[in-house]
Amino acid sequence: MFRTRSLSALFIFLLVASVFVGCGGEKSSSPSTPSPYAGHWKGAWVDTANNEQTGTLDITVAGRGNVTGSVVNITDNESGVVSGVLNDYGNISCYYYYRWDTYKVVGALSINASDHLVGNVTEYDIYRFPVRQDSIDLIKQ
Fold first, then answer.
1. What tens digit of pLDDT does each residue of 35-89 get?
2. Is residue 133 packed enough to be buried (19+ CB in 10 Å), middle (13-18) or exposed (0-12)?
3. Which residues make Cβ contacts (< 8 Å) with residue 136, sequence separation at least 6?
4. Helix, strand or coil for residue 115?
5. Every domain of the chain and the residues it spans
6. Beta partners for 93?
7. Half-sphere exposure of 126 (CA within 13 A, CB side)
8. Residue 56 belongs to what H/E stretch?
9. 85, 42, 90: which is closest to 64 by C-alpha?
10. Largest Cα–Cα distance of the chain, in whole Å?
11. How far is 22 from 5, CA to CA, in rounded Å?
């Protein structure tokens, strides 16, 4: 009986001590690292497929990879907004919302030796048909 009480007391002591040490509490967790692509980026995109269209892209990548900004299609004289995500591995998934059209954009971006955010993306129309293959070259502002 003495041994059972001792073990029970020891268990309760360890349980209470773990609360005071901060085991599992919020303060013991490490802060999240910001996205390696965080910042304001601006530059050009060029359709490398048949359409030969060009435009500009002005985006902000937030600390956790959320993308917001604007897109201009110079060839079609259209401008729109950008919304999406650029994850830590450089995979981008976003939407270009123009006045009359919406395109889903997916692809991969990276920071090159010149510190430009570069890569290739595919634009899909609302029917999920690929309409453009864009090469992107953005400079950090």
1. 999 999 999 999 998 778 999 999 999 989 999 999 999 999 999 999 999 999 9
2. middle
3. 43, 44, 45, 57, 107, 109, 117, 118, 119, 120, 121
4. coil
5. 39-140
6. 85, 106
7. 5
8. strand 54-61
9. 85
10. 87
11. 26
How many residues belong to the chain? 141
CA distances from 67 to 8, 12, 35, 62, 86 (A): 54, 49, 11, 6, 7
- Answer yes or no: are the C-beta atoms of 74 and 65 closer than 8 Å: no
Residues with Cβ within 8 Å of residue 49, at least 6 apart in sequence: 132, 133
Give this prediction's pTM: 0.75
Structure tokens, 8: 């029970």
Tokens 């060029």 identify what position? 46
- C-alpha triplet 111, 113, 114: angle, nearest 5°: 90
- Would you say 134 and 43 are in contact if contact means Cβ atoms under 8 Å apart? no
CATH number of 39-140: 2.40.160.90
Residue 59 class from Cβ within 10 Å (0-12 exposed, 13-18 middle, 19+ buried)? buried
